[in-house]
Amino acid sequence: MSRTKDTNPIPSVWTREQRRTDQPALSRDAIVREAIAMLDADGIEALSMRKLGARLNAGATSLYRHVATKDELMELAVDEVAAEIHVPPAGGPDWRAAVTEAAGSFRTTALRHPWLTLVLGQAGLAYLGPNYMNFSERLAALFTAAGFPEPNRAIDAVFSYVIGMSTTEAAWLTTVARSGESESEFVARLLPAARQASAGYDHLAAAEPETSAQAGDPAKLRDDKFAYGLEVVLDGLALRLPK
Amino acid sequence: MSRTKDTNPIPSVWTREQRRTDQPALSRDAIVREAIAMLDADGIEALSMRKLGARLNAGATSLYRHVATKDELMELAVDEVAAEIHVPPAGGPDWRAAVTEAAGSFRTTALRHPWLTLVLGQAGLAYLGPNYMNFSERLAALFTAAGFPEPNRAIDAVFSYVIGMSTTEAAWLTTVARSGESESEFVARLLPAARQASAGYDHLAAAEPETSAQAGDPAKLRDDKFAYGLEVVLDGLALRLPK
DNA sequence: CCTTCGATGCGCACACTGTACGCAGGAGGG
DNA sequence: CCCTCCTGCGTACAGTGTGCGCATCGAAGG
């Protein structure tokens, strides 16, 4: 039984390579950080436990010592990124400017990490992470100080809008990125198809020149669109502010 | 070479089962219909080409004769479901009621098919499907008739809000469904964790009784929240309507 | 010093995924 | 009759998340 021939190279302390301590040891933080880098670079479907492990000079299953499951890893990534959202301190003189700042910060964060909204629309309770909690707390403080008797309803109104717009924009930017072209190029190439698709639809065709008139800078157009909708929501909220 | 013994049962017209024409033949429509049924029943990660094929008495790869790829199938499913969204005809006396109806219809559709918003946030160009085009066209007609000089901006404002809120609600309902409990039960069981998570956050803790006070019917609470935010947006838009 | 122990990383394996490819069989047209 | 086209399928490949048990380590305890 024990005399089966072992043709494999004899494992030895000398052949076995040294444990490398130069690389930062595998840790939850390092894993999350690298996962975010991969998500940002190559999109959500490019992240696999094996590739992530390889990037950290580790095997795929080693990651599971620090993270229970891939879903949990995604929630950790979401919360990590939530720390980038800036909410001004409560009590300033201009609540609208403060809310605009917070909304804009959420949007740019969501566009910098286009997988964020995807995970938010999927993951159970990413809302309970510390950074996300912090974000919520600061928002609550802001709206309370502004004088809203039911701050949660106001927050939900504003940020449902912000999330919806950011989701749509992120999806758009993702497909643009996949095309390998710049946004303007992609728009130009898409135009004929869009025109043809909206042929026969009176109002879509009518609205089209309005859209493609200032087709100069698509990014600026998106900025304006976002700002417009946000102003709409804030105006509606201002009406409900007891004076 | 040809004399190798064949131990398999001899294939014959008699042993081979009849082609069943009782089952509706594999067709793109049938595939999409069945896919939607599976998505509704078991969620987005439960849909695989193999299982879908099995449900249709077909092999997995047979589906590819009618559908180029799984992503394309998802886009078809989205467009199919988009037909359920009801937009009142343009030109009625009360544009707010009409928009409220359309927004509500979008929301109930999104909650009936909780995978919808997920795919929307991912797929980018599902928008070119005929039903989705129809939906957009009717919206454009509605807002134009209401008198908005830039109907697209108004539509984007309203439906970014609607999409954002629906996405959040759908995600919530999905995790509730996964728990196997009713929404009230799940809320009750989640409460301690939420309370603990918001300990130390003054404003979140302060807002909590406000939320859990009428914890009677969570579904009604969500309805109210949605209606509130929608009113906010519509008020903001009304200010921009040239009179 | 040696021994023990808990923590960490890893190789293997399993069940599953989307889908490319080539073949078999039936439908219809010459 | 043959020939061509269309449909379905079996097989196969390259991947996926992750459970399990083993090897290795640094530290702790005797």
What does this protein structure show overall?
The structure is a homodimer of 243-residue chains. The first copy, chain A, is built from ten helices and no strands. With 243 residues, the first copy, chain A, is mainly alpha-helical. Among the domains of chain A are: 28-67, Orthogonal Bundle (Arc Repressor Mutant, subunit A), CATH 1.10.10; 85-180 and 213-238, Tetracycline Repressor, domain 2 (Orthogonal Bundle). In chain A, α4 runs parallel beside α7 (151-179) and α7 (151-179) packs antiparallel against α10 (218-238). The longest helix of chain A is centred in the last third of the chain and has 29 residues, at 151-179. Chain A starts with 27 loop residues before the first helix and ends in a 5-residue tail after the last helix. The model of chain A is unreliable at 1-22 (pLDDT under 50). The interface between A and B is large, with 61 and 61 residues. Chains A, B: Residues 48-67 bind DNA. Chains A, B: InterPro entries: DNA-bd_HTH_TetR-type_CS (IPR023772), Homeodomain-like_sf (IPR009057), HTH-type_TetR-like_transc_reg (IPR050109), HTH_TetR (IPR001647), Repressor_TetR_C (IPR004111), Tet_transcr_reg_TetR-rel_C_sf (IPR036271). Chains A, B: Keywords: DNA-binding, Transcription, Transcription regulation.
